[in-house]
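2024-03-11 09:14:02 INFO worker-7 job=invfold-0412 stage=load source=structure_tokens
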């Protein structure tokens, strides 16, 4: 009888604890992965649209220069110097702008550590178990990381799941909802292409417990 009562108490305590285990996941947007203080610090704020376009062109060329053929680099260097001088003449220190931009792009929200969250994004598979992907990058837009400049680290989530919880993708960059525990954890992941590989800086990691096709 005593053991029977103890069993009832254990069951009742377990039932009371279940809501905690199944706590509601906090739904996040991509903006939530950027520290709120950083969102308002725009290094391009005081530029005209023409200056912004020129600054973005300089940044893009600088970041992609090493991946270009030597003859392309030689041709672009003169244009790059000219554009940099034009910005300097307008009182714009492009090196300072790039440094501030990098700081914002790499900033992560440490308060999210260990939170159970749910968010939507485009799935870029990295590893498979049979026909299901068990490791992938979650990114905010189509084409990210594939022969194009990747999103900033705080806009990439490295997702892993148990083999039995893998997701069978229907197409590259399929939009999915991912639920699981997120960690603000900077890392570098090598991404392989058909004709080479590249190192991608990542700001967040996530252990997924549920992956679903996207529905509003």
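2024-03-11 09:14:09 INFO worker-7 stage=emit residues=216
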């Amino acid at each position: 009888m005593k053991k029977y009562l103890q069993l009832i108490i254990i069951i009742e305590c377990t039932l009371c604890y279940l809501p905690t285990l199944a706590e509601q996941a906090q739904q996040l947007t991509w903006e939530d992965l950027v520290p709120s203080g950083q969102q308002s610090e725009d290094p391009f704020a005081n530029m005209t649209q023409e200056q912004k376009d020129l600054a973005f062109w300089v940044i893009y060329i600088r970041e992609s220069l090493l991946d270009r053929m030597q003859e392309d680099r030689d041709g672009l260097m003169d244009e790059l110097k000219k554009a940099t001088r034009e910005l300097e003449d307008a009182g714009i220190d492009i090196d300072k702008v790039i440094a501030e931009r990098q700081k914002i792009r790499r900033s992560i929200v440490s308060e999210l550590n260990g939170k159970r969250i749910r968010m939507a994004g485009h799935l870029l598979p990295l590893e498979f178990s049979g026909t299901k992907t068990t490791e992938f990058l979650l990114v905010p837009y189509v084409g990210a990381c594939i022969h194009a400049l990747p999103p900033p680290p705080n806009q990439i989530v490295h997702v892993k799941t148990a083999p039995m919880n893998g997701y069978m993708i229907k197409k590259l960059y399929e939009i999915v909802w991912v639920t699981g525990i997120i960690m603000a954890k900077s890392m570098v992941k090598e991404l392989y292409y058909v004709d080479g590989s590249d190192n991608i800086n990542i700001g967040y990691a996530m252990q997924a417990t549920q992956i679903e096709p996207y529905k509003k």
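2024-03-11 09:14:09 INFO worker-7 stage=report msg="Residues 26-32+112-213 form a domain with the OB fold (Dihydrolipoamide Acetyltransferase, E2P) fold (CATH 2.40.50.870)."
2024-03-11 09:14:10 INFO worker-7 job finished
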